[in-house]
Hints:
Layout: H1 11-28, H2 40-50, H3 55-68, H4 72-77, H5 80-87, H6 93-109, H7 116-119, H8 127-138, H9 147-157, H10 166-181, H11 185-198, H12 217-220, E1 237-245, E2 247-248, E3 251-256, E4 267-268, E5 271-276, E6 285-289, E7 292-296, E8 299-300, E9 311-314, H13 318-321, H14 325-333
Parallel strand pairs: 1-7, 1-8
Antiparallel strand pairs: 1-5, 2-3, 3-4, 3-9, 6-7
Helix pairs in contact: 1-11, 2-3, 2-8, 5-6, 8-11, 9-11
The chain binds iron/sulfur cluster.
Amino acid sequence: MSSPSFRPLSAAAEQAVPSELAQWFSASRRALPWRAHRDPYKIWVSEVMLQQTTVAAVVPYYERFLKQFPDVKTLARAPEEKVLAAWAGLGYYSRARRLRQAAQEILKNGSFPASHKELLKLPGFGPYTARAVSSLAFGEKVGVVDGNVIRVLTRLSGFPHPWWGSKVQRSLQAQADLLAQSTDPYVFNQAIMELGATVCTPQKPTCTVCPVIEHCQAHQRKQVASIPLARPRPAKKIWIWQPSLHVREAKVALVVNNYAPFLKGQWMLPGTARPSQKPPQEFAFKHTITNYDIFVLPRQGSASGPKGSCEWVPLAKVSEKTPSSLIKKALSHYKLIETSS
Length: 341
Ligand code: SF4
């Protein structure tokens, strides 16, 4: 059965919501560092960081990152390891890698693309990031659709069906684009995301202070708690990772990971990884990365190193080379380094 199409806002709501949100936003907006300017590079960095964690957690990372890489040119010319080290703690290192790759393309092409269609051609730019950067930095009249926007739009329209299907996603995007047409897209997009983050929250939204309450179907029908529907999460995959710790003269052997599906392409301890139907009976520790539950069984390797090529990295510099906390945990298991956690 195909998913039912998204019921858009009423014509009256479409007309009123953008200006009511804009008014509310000008009085209630939080002073966030990426709102102090319309610099596309800085907005882009903030948007990529915000995809994976909360505003409060992002602010110190954002400020440190921009101090180290203040513009496209600095980021494009920085060694990948330095960029990954600055990203350490945020996770999803592939995003940092693609950020640097896209900066290199922008530098090569000579200018920052101003439309979402052009931005989509760069590494790491999906529909959300491309629209966020083009509307917030360049004023392109397109709407953004992230988790906050989905929550607000589905509640406003009282849409009680799965929203993650591609047909409904297209309807949500069309609805957001339409609303962004009628006003300053910077203000509309920031305002609707801000409403989702601070008022129309997943649990216990504060509807009494909501500026668009009179247009909200979910509120009128007392369905706020059940809209939007919870998206079913895919089951985590179980993997057993057996890293080998080859150590000599306070250096450890690292290889570029082409044997495990997690941390792919990153510097990692050599070893083996295999999928499993169930957790092993014995393991040193468990670590979770995105959809992987990783059960770790470290092995002591020889001082001569693993088979094939490797790089001997001073133990004190491992976190610069590979910032993942999984590697740190494996090294600290053998008391080769100390960790604060
Ligand atoms: Fe969200 Fe409540 Fe406002 Fe509806 S009335 S949009 S549920 S905060």
